[in-house]
Design a protein that fits this description.
Elements lengths: L10 H9 L2 E2 L10 H6 E2 L7 H17 L3 H14 L5 E5 L6 E5 L3 H35 L3 E6 L8 H6 L3 E3 L4 H5 L10 E6 H7 L11 E5 L6 E5 L10 H20 L2 H10 L1 H21 L6 E6 L2 H7 L10 E5 H7 L2 H5 L6 H5 L1 H5 L4 E5 L4 E8 L3 E16 L5 E15 L9 E6 L2
Parallel strand pairs: 1-2, 11-15
Antiparallel strand pairs: 3-4, 5-6, 5-7, 8-9, 10-11, 12-13, 12-16, 13-14, 14-15
Amino acid sequence: MATIDLEAVAPEAAIKSFERKGLEISFDWRDTDADEHARTFTVAKGMRLDVLTDIRAAVDDALRNGTTLAQFREDLRPKLQAKGWWGKQIMSDPLTGEDRLVQLGSPHRLRTIFDVNMRASYAAGKWKRAKDMAARVQSQSGQKVYLRYVSVRDDRTRPAHKNLHGTLLPLDHPFWDTHYPPNGWGCRCTIQILTERQVRRMGYEVSPDPEVKTREWFNARTGEVSNVPEGIDPGWGHNVGKSATRAEAGRVFAEKLRTAPPDIAALALKSDPDVVAEIQNSYSLFFDDVVAAGKARGERRVIGAFSPRTVERLSDFDSYPENAAITIGDREILHLLRDAKKARNQALPESFVRDLPTELAKTRAVLFDTQEPTLLYVFDVADEKLAKLVVRIDFKTKMRDSTGKRIDVQTNTARTASLVQPGNLKAKRYKLLDGEL
């Protein structure tokens, strides 16, 4: 196994890329699409969160401390064996319901897990380094930044990857959307980051636009047919750096929503439909981490914003919020999923709570509670039922900032949610602000 190029990117960038990944339970690697693989940490047949958490912690430790493959195996194997995740076992396939003999932990699988996650994390960190460099040199000298494809070129390298060696194209060229390495299982290719001045000094020439040929690939798990670039393994035809960056972009934009004036934040969310998807990506990672940990750390995320109509109507009741962003904390997430709500048949499906940003974007109605400074967001759910999300306006609480320090904030926060009878929403205390019941 070739040595991973650790000097080409700061370890901190690779670590941060890996830390942003949520946890994804899967039975087969084909159950998770390529973009989701880049944003989440998943291990095929890792159907238990405790197993997945142990493996993720081991990968995280390897990134932070430069752990070797041998040490990675030595530390992780007894933990997985103690949990029964080792060797061949009969497991039920959740897709088909059939019992199958599958391979769980093994020395070979640990090597694959180690190799894939280390390389993908460093590749994502390297992409961020290239983007940061591009922004810097563009502002300072107007130069472009280029990426050069570098393959190992020994007898283990795929011919298609050898042919890509030396391809030199601008950072923003669409070629890197599908051919940014690694490009397959065990792929050892990487990229070299160069400014225009470095390209000239080294005597390189910019490549002509590559002809990208594709082949059809049938995913027997999902039934989908997709076009995969020739020479790229199915599931690898994506840019791990861009996928990771999209989740980070959602977090950054959400933070801007939290600090923007109410009318500006409301319009920003309404005018750009892609924003909801970015916020959803970021929140999903946060949600998965909270559920996996099972305890609150005082962290909070933005899940949406008041509509322009809601902001306008609130002024009719002398209630003008400090900002329009709607947030939720890890404590509230655990509250929404607690067993007591399930016992009273009031709990919302976990999938609904995980998709709160998406659900907020298609709210049926928004009500103002005149007896308390709260909003009720009303949703359609399965079986013609309604759900309500209670949002406290300008609620004072504490949260952790990017450094982990606890700070005081005033925010519109989702406090609780439950299934509700339609008649209960027609009380005089509730005033319709937006939508219809």
